TrEMBL record:
CDD domains: HATPase, HisKA. Pfam families: HATPase_c, HisKA. One of its GO terms (biological process) is osmosensory signaling via phosphorelay pathway. InterPro entries: BphY/WalK/GraS-like, HATPase_C_sf, HATPase_dom, His_kinase_dom, HisK_dim/P_dom, HisK_dim/P_sf, Sig_transdc_His_kin-like_C. It comes from Rhizobium mongolense USDA 1844. This is histidine kinase.
């Protein structure tokens, strides 16, 4: 089964549109994110001792999320400029996936969704970029859910000098006629309850993985669900 077009199959015009979009969006987000982080720090400094544990935890989470978003937008700006800044460090995949899943379930109101995985490896990668890729793939499993409660299964295996991370869901699946197009920029599955958004999630994820020395593939999809595979150097 085809895994979709390779990154080189994307036209230069489309690549330029992606880079312009990422550059503009990332630049415009920098200022509000900087202010959110700054005000969160001020509130923690001035009110930290007066807050109860739940309030302190919430305010700390706001600061951490804003700082993470700042790092991501800076990385996307450098990527859009053609010089991606990658900061590799040990990343524990299991806790990262669990945190992202908890966050997504809350954001998307998918309280009936579940995830399962065995012990996942520690990777030497860029945590911010890898988080973005994983979040995009996991979010699709919730966006394009089927009739049953959403379920995602993760598994990792070594393949030579690489890690293969398989992300399987029980969603609607992708019709064969559309499987060649899912990585195209600004393209979305034609469905009655179309999901809003620019249609860049999988495209950007594949490009970010390329900057990490890896790739993103659709390795299986039918009426029982889809499986995406991430390849990353070990």
């Amino acid at each position: 089964m085809s895994s979709g077009p390779t990154p080189t199959a994307v036209s230069s015009t489309s690549e330029e549109r992606i880079r312009r979009f990422l550059a503009t969006a990332s630049h415009d987000l920098q200022s509000p994110l900087r202010h959110i982080a700054m005000y969160a720090e001020i509130l923690l400094d001035e009110l930290g001792e007066k807050l109860d544990s739940e309030q302190l935890e919430s305010l700390t989470a706001i600061l951490q999320k804003a700082q993470t978003a700042q790092r991501l937008t800076k990385a996307l700006m450098s990527f859009a400029a053609g010089a991606p800044q990658v900061s590799p460090a040990p990343v524990e995949l299991g806790p990262l996936v669990d945190d992202l899943w908890t966050e997504l379930k809350t954001e998307m109101g998918a309280h009936d969704a579940s995830i399962a995985h065995d012990r996942l490896p520690t990777l030497n990668s860029d945590a911010t970029l890898l988080s973005t890729v994983l979040k995009n793939v996991l979010a699709n499993a919730l966006l394009y859910r089927g009739a049953a409660d959403p379920r995602v299964d993760l598994a990792a295996e070594r393949s030579g000098s690489d890690w293969l991370i398989h992300i399987s869901d029980n969603g609607r699946g992708i019709e064969p006629v559309h499987q060649e197009r899912i990585f195209e920029p600004f393209w979305k599955l034609p469905q009655p309850d179309a999901v809003t958004g620019p249609g860049l999630g999988l495209t950007a994820s594949r490009e970010l993985l390329s900057a990490l020395g890896g790739e993103l593939m659709l390795s299986h999809s039918d009426h029982t669900g889809s499986r995406f595979t991430i390849r990353l150097p070990a």
